[in-house]
Request: fold
Amino acid sequence: MPQKTYYVYIMTSKKNGTLYIGVTNNLARRVEEHKSDIEEGFTKKYQVHDLVYYELLNDKQTAIVREKQLKKWKREWKIKLIEETNPDWKDLSEELVIL
Reply:
């Protein structure tokens, strides 16, 4: 049985803007849902459409724990995490076609 991949991700409205942290097993689909404002809620209200950070994990429970951990972090820590791998806050969703 192939191993599933899970993603913990951070989306934003703009550089240093509103942040959203989530977890999914299909990052490309989930990002598209955010971008298209398919559901009423936080990301639609605050226009959180740019994927700026993600992690791959091989276990659902580990991914959920990591998501909860990041949600509890101070904002400064989240910004530092983003900027370690994406200093320009580039929308990484264009990369998803290769995943």
